[in-house]
Amino acid sequence: MFYMDILFFFVFGVLLGSFLNAWIWRTRSGKSIWRGRSMCPKCGNTLTWKENIPLVSFFWLRGRCLTCQKKISFQYPFVEIVVGCLFAFSAWFHAGYILLTFRDAFVLFFLTFVFVYDVTYQEIWDRMTVYPALFLLVPTAILGWHSGMSITVGVVVGAGFFLLQYLISKGKWIGGGDIRLGMLMGVILGWPLILVALFFAYVGGALFVLPFLVLKKQTMASRVPFGAYLTLATALTMFYGMDIVQWYIGLIS
Question: pTM of the predicted model, to two decimals?
Fold first, then answer.
């Protein structure tokens, strides 16, 4: 039964990964996600059901549009597989606690949205951060996933940390999207795990960028999609943050 849960969430994740791809493209194109059928982003041809099966259609079509024969971005199957694996991991991690699995699947869906969109376009929209943060507040309060104080401090620290940088630099260091992402992180993680996520984001970002600086592939003035590091750090902290905190306390005690 447990393995069926993992399989279910993998398939569910692949389906939502397909939806996520469409949402990203429609957001960038200024189109509504709720109107119109799926189409080829290159030629605009409406896709048949055979061309619209998540994951399967990409390989069946050999990565090309059936109508215009132009290449389909590998982002589509990659995102579908990644979201499927993330959902399956959440099911494995919570081992039968379906409500917690759905909660984390919801969070991982939007973190993936932020990651892909920020890496691709270096933008973070409100629909990726503010809306899921507001939606999470109600079940979090009702089900006691975090205390009111934990959420409040987490949001103040998460959003306030980036707001302070924004004000000091007059928007040169970070954008408003990072502030709103910090708010979402505060709702997801609460206090003190928000500190763990921020630490990992900055350390991970520095370690990733450093080789490019050494090789002069980037400069200190180069734009970095920092939202990507924040989402990865949030996902890691969401599952293993408390273990990391307890390990650290054990070291210093």
Answer: 0.87
